[in-house]
Write a structure and sequence with these properties.
mainly alpha
Length: 595
């Protein structure tokens, strides 16, 4: 029996330990990314999912592959549809980052490669992570990069020089059409493998590959109607077609440079482990700091409120606001909607920060986010046509001209409520070709042309009764009049009444508040909502010196509160600082101190 050479055993054990350490580091990258997107940035994933409509049809596939990078775009959209579930999306991003790091390490690994190459191979994944923190960054870039590096890995395993040349010449145009601009990673990546040839052949092949790499996007202009900049830098890597973020370009360029220099890095023989650890810590600290710097918690908060409103999670919206008050208009509008849907708007609206009427119903903006969020308010109020218009215009404003699964669902609902069954059927037909909206679409199809079934639906039936039925000119600048017409059409629309009064209070228009207040006498309140009490008693104290003859049932705590508030306000020079601790969550404080 032969005895194993101790040197060989030691080498194998060392190699095994290194492989385990490298695998662990790669898994740590994936775990960190998964936790980041799943816990800290989940609603950026929901935001991405709602701005596309991936269809499982041959026609959709054919439309995607008709331009350079279309295959990568198709794969990216297929993966993005799983962002409907945040943890699925977080896992997908984590896997893509790990694959990219593993590919780069394998491509740079050779007998002469420096030992410090492994930590350096994490840099492109970290740059890609930073790029994806932008809510308009699309998944097509990581998919395209991985496809390009996969083609490069195949090239590396071809040993015969002529087969390498044949493969490169065939792969370059095909890969360009599959992956788009990121195929330049393949072009740049095959050049270092030419160094084994004699200098004239090495230079000639390298120059030929570079020229071909530049030539293909130029030739593509003949049948792909896109600007040359997009043909070079990617058609679907970023939501805004004419914008190419620096971090996107840097990610591709840095990856290409690393492929070039992998075999040129100096090998460190002394204290190699120490150098590796130091480099790992430096890259991790730098990448982590950069990720922290570009992470936008305010946008994530807005997306969270919008998502919860979309999913009708009213209780969760209120609990979220109780933990931390929202300040952005869209977030406040979602909170006020949740308060109204749970019957708490009149009592609790001033328990939270209010930023005027923009936090009740945001003004129309020519973008694809604000109208989509504002449509939720219109829809639940019963302003069905306004909800439909805002939804459609938001979808048409999406910069990369994609459709929206969220918008399609709302357009189905508004058309069903309005009795436009042929239009609703068109949207349902598309939704039935999706993965995650199919079940809902199949269920809703049963409502087409069935008036009785729609009228008995707990939400759609009520909204049919609440919506406008007369034609008139809708004016966004006279929202109180629009709300008044809605209430006049259906005097039982409690939400319309509360929004009407809330609109007057947020405008600090007490004259209109007093004019509108009697409209709610038939709505069956068992008490006057707290905010309305505070407004009523404030108006009373401006004209009366006592509470004698008060025509409303005002609670003792409100009477005592307004008396103390008035005393401090009229006698103390620093009244605001004295009143804030106790009265900041009242209409009085909003009226007199909020700008």
């Amino acid at each position: 029996m032969k005895r194993r050479n101790p040197l060989i055993s030691t080498y194998m054990e060392k190699s095994h330990r290194q492989a385990v350490a490298r695998g662990t580091a790669t898994l740590l990258l994936g775990a960190a990314a998964c936790l980041y997107w799943g816990l800290y940035y989940p609603h950026h994933l929901h935001y991405q999912e709602q701005l596309q409509l991936f269809l499982l049809t041959p026609e959709y596939w054919a439309g995607k592959i008709a331009h350079p990078g279309g295959v990568a775009e198709y794969v990216a959209e297929f993966l993005t549809q799983f962002f409907y579930f945040a943890w699925a999306g977080a896992s997908i991003i984590a896997v893509l980052l790990m694959i990219l790091q593993k590919q780069l390490h394998d491509l740079g690994k050779s007998p002469g490669t420096s030992g410090i190459w492994f930590p350096i191979s994490f840099i492109p994944s970290l740059l890609l992570w930073i790029f994806l923190c932008d809510e308009n960054a699309l998944l097509s870039l990581p998919v395209s990069m991985i496809l390009s590096l996969t083609a490069l890995q195949v090239y590396r395993h071809i040993k015969h020089p002529y087969r390498q040349v044949a493969y490169a010449l065939l792969a370059m145009p095909l890969l360009y059409w599959i992956a788009g601009g990121a195929y330049l990673l393949f072009v740049c990546g095959i050049i270092p493998y030419q160094r084994g040839n004699k200098p004239p052949y090495w230079l000639a092949r390298s120059l030929a590959y570079l020229l071909l790499g530049i030539l293909y996007p130029i030739l593509a202009q003949g049948w792909a109607q896109y600007p040359l900049s997009r043909l070079f830098l990617g058609i679907d890597y970023y939501r805004f077609p004419t914008i190419f973020p620096g971090i996107m370009i840097a990610t591709i360029c840095v990856t290409a440079i690393l492929l070039w220099i992998a075999g040129l890095l100096p090998d460190i023989s002394k204290r190699r482990s120490l150098w590796r650890i130091a480099l790992c810590l430096l890259i991790a600290a730098g990448g982590g700091s950069w990720i922290y710097a570009v992470s936008d918690s305010e946008k994530e908060e807005v997306m969270r409120y919008d998502y919860l409103a979309r999913m009708r999670q009213w209780g969760e919206i209120i609990r979220t606001a109780e933990r931390k008050e929202p300040k952005a208009p869209i977030s406040v509008a979602c909170l006020n909607l949740a308060l109204a849907k749970t019957g708490q708007l009149g009592d609790r609206m001033f328990h939270f920060y209010q930023n005027g009427t923009e936090g009740l119903i945001a003004s129309f903006q020519r973008d694809f986010m604000v109208p989509l969020s504002t449509n939720e308010v219109f829809y639940h109020l019963g302003m069905i046509n306004s909800s439909q218009r805002y939804t459609f215009e938001a979808m048409e404003a999406i910069p990369d001209f994609k459709k929206s699964g969220r918008a399609y669902v709302r357009l189905v609902e508004t058309n069903l409520i309005n009795g436009e069954y042929a239009v609703a059927a068109k949207y349902l037909q598309a939704l039935r070709q999706t993965l995650f909206y199919r079940r809902w679409a199949n269920q809703v199809t049963a409502y087409l042309y069935d008036e009785e079934k729609i009228n008995s639906h707990p939400e759609w039936g009520w909204l049919r009764k609440a919506r406008y039925t007369e034609d008139f000119l809708f004016s966004e600048t006279e929202m109180d009049s629009m709300l008044g017409l809605l209430l006049r059409h259906n005097p039982k629309n409690r939400m319309a009444f509360e929004y009407l009064l809330a609109h007057a209070l947020l405008r600090k228009d007490l004259e209109r508040f007093m004019r509108y207040y009697p409209l709610g006498k038939e709505l069956g309140y068992d008490h006057i909502p707290l905010s309305f009490q505070e407004a009523l008693i404030f108006v009373w104290t401006q004209e009366n010196s006592s509470f004698h003859g008060l025509p409303w049932s005002i609670s003792r705590s409100v009477l005592d509160g307004v008396s103390e508030f008035a005393r401090i306000y009229t006698t103390q020079p620093d009244a605001e600082s004295l009143l804030r601790p106790k009265y900041e969550k009242t209409f009085w404080y909003y009226l007199l101190f909020r700008k």
